[in-house]
Amino acid sequence: MRPQEIKKVIEKVKSGKLSSAEAYSKLKSLPFEDLGYAKLDHHRHLRQGFPEVIYCPGKSIEQISNIAKKISKNSRGLLATRADEKAYKAVKKVLKKARYHKPARLITYSASNPLISNPLIISIVCAGTADIPVAEEAAVTAEFLGNKVDRIFDVGVAGLHRLLGNMKRISKASVIIVVAGMEGALASVVGGLVDVPVIAVPTSVGYGASFKGLSALLTMMNSCAAGVTVVNIDNGFGAAVAASTINRMRSR
Asked: Rounded to whole angstroms, what are the CA distances from 34 to 29, 37, 40, 44?
């Protein structure tokens, strides 16, 4: 239930247009709704500005579609991460306007305008083409949260001139998300060139000794560039939420 709808329920009870029993029936699923296999946090958009997000792996198709339907009834939008096409087809049956972003593995649904409208730019700087799925997860999530996104892909340190040739664009961002696998050096390089927050996302891309992203993670955590913040391996979603929160604070 949206904030304005809660207010309307209270006003109707006050004016006598709605009984206390009817109001209780409308509000009983707050602050969460217990489905047995999931407890949906319907107040999350009140606290954080966006609804609860569905993490699809480990859930059945039926669970995903039912959770999506329940969330959409109480919020203007829906985001489901790490979704495959089977999950999307199931969600599409209950939410006709749902969209599938294949490279990002995301399902989005919006009943109206973006949840947040923010003109500040989030720049997604991606090291290599193989890192694009994680970069797209960050980009689509940031856009879903109402941010303007600039994608700058395949500018890894193996060809530093590619990065330097895009610094004019990168410098316009208020927050920068750097996505890189292999040794993860790109985050340190970018961090040493800009004066805005840098959120580093290590990816699991790389040969054997990269240890499925651990090498990039440790490099980013040990960055000598001051102010570089690191999220978990392949966590483009988490980086986008953090960047969006920073943008919201800066725009106030």
From this structure: 8, 8, 6, 15
